[in-house]
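Moderator note: this is an archived Q&A kept for reference. The question asked for a predicted structure of one protein chain; the sequence and the answer are reproduced below.
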Amino acid sequence: MQNFSLLDLSPIAEGKTAADALAGTVDLARAAEGFGYHRYWLAEHHNMPGIASAATAVVIGHVAAATKTMRIGAGGIMLPNHAPLIIAEQFGTLATLYPGRIDLGLGRAPGTDMPTARALRRHMVSEDSFPQDVQELLGYFGNSAERAAVRAIPGAGTHVPVWILGSSLYGAQLAAYLGLPYAFASHFAPAMLEQALHIYRSTFQPSQFLERPHVMMAAGVCAAETDAEAAYLRSSQLLAFARLHTGRPGKLPMPTENITQEIPAPVMAQVTQALSCSATGSTKTVKSQLSALIDTFQPDELMVTGMIHDHSARVRSFEIAADILTDLRETQQAA
């Protein structure tokens, strides 16, 4: 593991507002930079009462302005919602304002429900243009774009690093074919992680962007002083995911001591499986769980994420995780 990074969905907690969530994102980003996180990514979701990062490029610019050295990026932009030129202009502008610090992760899903996708002016067509859109976007960032009939200004010549994101085998195949870095959304969809990483690594084609495969996997983290406290704090995320899964999305719930009474057993089984690529507990427990994940999948980078209702507890959780990951990285590099 070369680096560890952080994915923030700017959660809007019950009793709080979107303004509170965005202020929390800036505070967490500043803290994460001090903790040693390499990247800080934000994700595009729409029509979600509990997520404040819908205008992802805008939030990335806000976070980049509030930090100094950490890479800031999208994990990800849902490209089918946008014209590639618009994304090239947005991220070309960000890369011009914050040179050497901007990442662009691209997803193929709409990141929302179908009515909202239509409201985004997305063309609801059957053919999949994602590979062509990715290649068009890459072209806008290249040097040759200076001579093109259509240019992204700013954007041309910025060479913004582009990642392919995925939770299935499709993204792995595309990232390998294009020779791009690959990030797997194992923090909420771990089922195909092992197979996707094998396909990506075994079929990777070197490119002008990357000489060898580069994998980032994601894991949930909820760390606290004791296992019991961490389990209590994590109940908020379990509740939120269960409500989303059953068609009742909302703000991030308050934690509960009786999670099994709040979530029916069949739903709880599905939630537990979906969020199984995670580490919850005290420093000792989380270190053991993260170490096992790293040993099993050998990622080049690990991106952690976690939704905790109390902001200070969330910051502390990522501080504990950073200390653990720093130690694991140093141990691995010394071996």
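Archived answer notes: Residues 220-298+307-335 form one domain.
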